[in-house]
Specification:
The chain is an all-alpha fold and 139 residues long. The chain has seven helices and no strands.
């Protein structure tokens, strides 16, 4: 018998795929701001960061790692690396400013850290190149 819970549960691969896509787009915007000053540059003067600085490497990971996650390509290892990047970002830049994430502006870093950690364990979900590759391997 199909209950409402069974029907809702069957949607989990699609919802996981949507979470991955939406989070990746938002994550890419942070990298685009650092690397390309798009849609706006880095505060306070609207410029880009130095490419080989720590912020520049963060921007590279955010933009290009986000692009891989958007496509769902090498999702598990990329998401694991990006979870680590966000943990470092939180503890290096936010935590020293105070204990509470709402006060040190670290909510976004924490959320991305755990979203990427979850996706590294759960996989890409639907709408991914990884799923297409798995399907062609199994046929």
């Amino acid at each position: 018998m199909n209950t409402l819970t069974d029907k809702w549960t069957s949607w989990s691969p699609f919802i996981l795929g949507l979470l991955r896509i939406i989070a990746a787009i938002m994550f890419m915007m942070a990298g685009a701001m650092k690397l390309f000053a798009f849609p706006a540059g880095m505060p306070p003067n609207g410029e880009t960061v130095e490419l080989l600085s720590q912020m520049g490497i963060g921007g590279i990971l955010e933009f290009f790692g986000g692009l891989l996650l958007l496509l769902g390509l090498y999702t598990r290892p990329v998401a694991f690396i990006l979870a680590g990047e966000m943990a470092v970002a939180y503890f290096q830049f936010h935590a020293p400013q105070g204990f509470w994430p709402v006060m040190n502006n670290g909510q976004t870093a924490i959320l991305y850290c755990f979203i990427w950690l979850y996706i590294s364990a759960a996989g890409a979900g639907s709408f991914s190149i990884d799923a297409l590759r798995k399907k062609t391997r199994n046929t």
